[in-house]
Amino acid sequence: MDLAEFRLRYTLNALPELDLIELDQQLRQAAVLIALYEVDNRLELILTRRPTHLRAHPGQISFPGGKVEQSDLSYQATALREAEEEIGLLSSNVEVIGALPPHKTFTGFEITPFVGIVKQTFTPIIDPGEVDEYFTVPLSFLMQGYNRHTQRFKRKGIQYPVHFIPYKQHFIWGATAAMIDLLCRQLSCEKAD
Q: In 3-143, which ranges are continuous DSSP H helix?
C-alpha cells in the first residue's frame, strides 16, 4: 500500500467495532505517535523498544510517546514532543492525519494514539534513556490478518483480549499491538475476532 492509498482508506473507511476494556481505576493520560513513512512506494511503521530500566513497560515494543505533561498544549502535542525527544523526529516533519480512540491499559494508562505521516526522510537520533532500539515494520506485513493474533485472558473473573504480533526477533504485544490491529482493521474494513 502506498501513501495515496493509505490516505484514501484511512479517510474513507469507518473505524471498526472496538473491544472496550472497563477499568475501575484512575488512569494517567499518555499519547503516542503511530508514524508511517514511505520508502520505495511502500509504507513502514516506526516502532521502538523500551529500555529494561524503565518503571513502566520495560523492554516492551512501543510507539514513540509518553505521559502528558502540564506544559503540553494537547495530547497531539504530547505525542509529537515525545517522538522528537525519543527518536529525533521533528514535529515539523510529521503530518498528523487523525487519531484513534484512546486505549486503556491495566497498568493505569489511557493512551491516545495519533496517526502521522513522516514528510521527509530523517535519521533517527535515539535517546538511550528512553529507547533501546528503533526499527520499522512494513505496513504490508501488518495488514496481513494472519500476522496479527488475539488471545483472551481472564483477569479478576473477566475475559479480556490481548493482542500480539511476532515480527522477526520482536514480539509486539499489548496496547501497541491492539492499536496496530485497530488501524489495520480500519484500513481493510475487517471485523474484530
A: 3-12, 75-87, 139-143
